[in-house]
Every structure is written in C-alpha cells, then in structure tokens.
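Field guide to reading this record: the first block holds the primary sequence, the second block holds the structure written as discrete tokens, and the final block holds curator observations. Each block starts with its own label. This record concerns histidine kinase, catalogued under organism Cystobacter fuscus.

BLOCK 1 — SEQUENCE
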Amino acid sequence: MASPSHPDLRDAERQFTRSVLAGLCLLGLVAVVGPLLSYRGDVHEMHDQFRSRLEREGRVYAEALGLHIQLLESELSRVALGVGPELLEGRAIEDMQDLTAPDLGLFRQGILLLDTTGNVRWSEPLVRTPSDVVRARAWFQHVLQQQAPVVDALDPGSSTFVVAVPVRGEHRVLGMLVGLIDARMELPGSRPMSKHLKLVVLNRGGDILLPSPPPSWATLPGFAAKVEQLLAREGQEVDSADGEELFAWATVVPGTRLRLVMAADETATVATIRQRLLAQLLVLAGLQVGTLLLFSLHWRRVYRLFLEMERRAAEKETMAALGSASGLIAHEVKNSLNGLKVATGLLSPGEEQALAVRALRGQIDRLAHLATSLLHFGKPPRVQRIPVDLPHLVREVLEGLRVLPEAEEVRLTAHLPEALELQGDPLLLATALDNLVRNAMEAAVAAKDLGRVATPEVSVRVRQEEGHAVVDVEDNAGGPPEGFEARLFEPFVTSKPKGVGLGLSMTRRAVEQQGGRVGFTRLPGGSRFTVTLPPPDSTASSDSQEPPHERPPALHR
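BLOCK 2 — STRUCTURE
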C-alpha cells in the first residue's frame, strides 16, 4: 500500500493549518468583542454620570448665585425704604456708605442714587455720568417700566454688574438705587474652576459677565442663541475652536434674567476608560501573538507525529492483509518454482546451455526470495541474540552476492577488521546487509547503463565508533532523486521502475529489532548507508532460548 504523496501531504497540512488558524481567530475575536462591549457600556454609563454631575453642579452654582443676588437686592431694598421723597435722607446715606465699605461692604465698587431722568443724585464714590447715557441702559428702562429689581451688566460687554431696585414714593417710582459689583471678584463662580470645567454667566443680550476673559467657545457668533437652545434641552454638545469635545448645560439664575452655562470636556472624562481598554487590547494582542508563535513552533511537530502514527497504523493494516495472503502466494508460486527447478535440473550443463541454465536458476531464486520475503514481512520472526563475528558475517554476505549477474560489472571492495564481536541475530543482520549491498550493486549497474559512471563501485567498511559496531555501504550511483531521502525506508515506496519497495524497509526493521539504527548520507556522486549496532555488553533479549527461525531472504528495492 503506497504512502500519501507529497502534494496530498501538503494539502492536508494546509487544511489543518487553516482550521487551527480559523479557530484561533475565532477565539481572538471572542476575546476582543468582550472588552469592546464592556468599553461601550462603560463609556455610555460614564457619559450619563458625567452629564448628571454637570447638571447638578450647574444647579448648585445657579442657586448660589441667585441667593447671593437676592441678598444684594434685599439690602438695597432695605436702604431704599429710608430714602425720602427728595432722595437725600441722611439715614439712607449712612446705610449706603456702610454697603460700600472697603472691607465688609457688599458693593465695594460703589452705589448710585438716580432719579427717573437718569441724573445721579448721590454716589459713593463720586460718579459723573451723563443722564442721557444712563437713560439708554436696558436695566434703567426695565426698572422704570417694570418697577421691579434687575441684575444686568453695567455696559454691554462689561464685567461690572449692576443690582438696581426702585425707590418708591406714593404710588410712583421716585428713582432707583444701583449697586455696582465686580463680577470677577465678588460673585460665586468668579474664581477659576477645574481645568476641564467652565462656568459662563451672561445676560439675555449675550454680554458675558463671568469669567474674564471668557472661553473661546463662548465668544463664537450666535452663542446667545445657542444658550436659548440649551435652556430648552437637557444639554448638548457645543463647538470648540480648541478641538475639545464639550458638553454644555444651561439654566436661568433664580430671581434674575441671567443665564448660567456649565460646560466640560468629555474627552478627559473618557480618557481613563479608553486607556484601560487599550491596555486590555494590548494584553490580548500579546496573548494572541504568543499563542500564534507557540502554535507555529509546535504544530508541525505534533502534526508530523500524527502523520507518523497514521502511517504506522496503515502499515500494520497492510502487513495484516499481506500476512493473510502470503500463505496462498507462497504456496502457488513455490509449486511452480519447484517444477521449474526440476526442469532446469534435467538440462545438460554443456557449455552452450550453461549461460541459459545459470540465468534461469538466478531468476527462479529471485522469485523464491520474493515469495518467502512477503511471507516473512507479514509475520516477522522474533529476534535471537547470540555472539556474532561481524567481519565474518559480512564476508559471507559478500560471497553470496558474487553469484548475481551484477557482480561481474561491479568492483566490490571490503575493508574489514580481523575481528569485531557483538550480540545480535546473525540471520537478521545478514538479511539487512544483503539488502543494502544488493541495492548498491543494482543502483551502480543502472547508473553505468545510463552513462552516468564508467565503472560501478561498491565499498563495504566495518569499523568501531564509541563502542558501537558500524557498517558503511557506499556506492557511486549518484544517489536517490532529490527530496526522496525522507521516504527511503517506507514500505512499498521505491524510486525504481520495477522495484517492490520492501528491501530498505525490511533492513531498517531488522536492525531496529536489535537496538540499532540505519542512516543515509548523500555523497558527491553517490550515497552511503550506515548501520550502527549496539555494543556487545547490551542487554540480551529474553527470547534467546527459542528455537532458531528460518532466515528471511534478501529482497532488492
């Protein structure tokens, strides 16, 4: 039974590799999807927490600012009750001076007492502002028309607040009391906040009171209209010239017409989660790369072992089938060969018929070897270890091969020591050496017939190396085809057109059954087979007392 061809082996390897890689990719995908889904959920939850916190902080600031402004209005309203019809009552002036005290005053920027025409009736410190300029202010007109307190910017774009309350007489407004505040120093939220959190306070006209200077995104055109949209929604993203991902939330300061906007950069909030995800992905990537490297280092070895086990199982099945058929083959073939032997024995051994008789007997011996070899290959004999003189055994093998037709064309040389003993089975060793030398002789003659060499040569050398007995069989036949070395010892695999493919396989089995090994080396212009046998003090087999078995004959590849 032939072993799988190289293309089939490569296809099987590629299919196995694709299957394993697909499994690894699937595991890697599952491992990556988990952190990505977790990251998505964490980011969504962090966005919700971030926006809820922004809304809470904005309401706290708005309520704090509203309470502070209500306190300022109540103080001004209390003082306004003491202003007489002429707007110059002494007690009211004392109270206004207390409110403008440098250390404890609520209006350290000053207080103005205006009449309904915009004239300054009293101020601390002294202020000389034309009445027509005052009358043009929106906050002045609001107090006169609505007769209610107002908080606004002193001038468009100014950071100075005015807190104005009406001064009432009998059923009419006599004037107004105006307190001045520097928003950058005297209001909640005027101090710098955290790096990623911004607070902006502005009026309905878009004049920014806090902070100073305002952030760049609060100075973009249409920001006042954007704030009105923010008031109608639960917050939204705003454009930033600095590339920040800002989320803004707005509310009306209680008791005023001011707007408070709280904005923060979401990028900084999500950065920690993103870094954690990247760390997880890097760890997973490292694990995947490590797994692929380990796979690439070990899969071929494991797969080769699997193929070897499969090959041995197929070989056992082949030998089992061969063993059942070998009896029939040996019986039928040997009966015919016996008749042929009797017929050749009746031929006259004259000079004219000597060559034909010799050729017939040689072919009959080859067929007998083939039949008996198939029988013994299916049911290999057990090993018997006895003392063996290796040089003497090699001489016997070489003498037995000199009767082959190829022996007349091959220059066969032997380099043998006087003695080299070991423990082994002489019949199995003779079979192994017979096959190696026979193969070398046939290959050398074939190389001569093809014109590759002029003189076929085969050399046999016996030596001792590190306590082991070594037999080298060399030839000048050019060696087997390129890439065929890995399959030299496979049964039923041969490079010869008419070979059977059992010779080298039987040789390896016979040597390995005695604890030895067979190696192959390609030489310049030829090849070398090396048989290495264990030293004489190796443990002998327990079956050495069994009766001697029939010698398995040699079989050429």
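BLOCK 3 — OBSERVATIONS
The longest helix spans residues 266-345.
The domain at 381-533 is CATH 3.30.565.10 (Heat Shock Protein 90).
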